[in-house]
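User: I've been trying to design a sequence by hand for this structure and keep getting stuck. Would you show me what you'd pick, starting by listing the structure so we're on the same page?

Assistant: Good idea, let's start from the same input. This is the structure you sent:
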């Protein structure tokens, strides 16, 4: 499986409802939240077979704002090969 970062932004006004929706599908504890610091966004790193599967951690109503990116680790050797 690949690893993906899932990003769920919401406004201060949407915060309570957004968190309730995520709690209702059971993925609230998968995310780290910036809400208490004024950054109304949740981030999670999940293992999934593809982006669509990673997006399933987000309530349907919030998916249009959510983003999912496949994560890749580079070794020092990988970086050196890029500059040849």
């Amino acid at each position: 499986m690949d690893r993906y970062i899932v990003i769920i932004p919401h406004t201060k006004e949407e915060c309570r409802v957004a968190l309730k929706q995520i709690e209702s599908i059971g993925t609230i504890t998968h995310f780290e939240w910036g809400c208490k610091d004024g950054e109304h966004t949740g981030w999670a790193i999940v293992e999934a077979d593809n982006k669509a599967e990673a997006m399933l951690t987000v309530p349907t109503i919030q998916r249009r704002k959510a983003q999912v990116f496949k994560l890749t680790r580079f070794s020092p050797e990988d970086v050196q090969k890029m500059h040849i």
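That's my pick for every position. To get oriented when you compare it with your attempt: The mean pLDDT is 96. The helical segments are 15-24, 51-55, 76-82.
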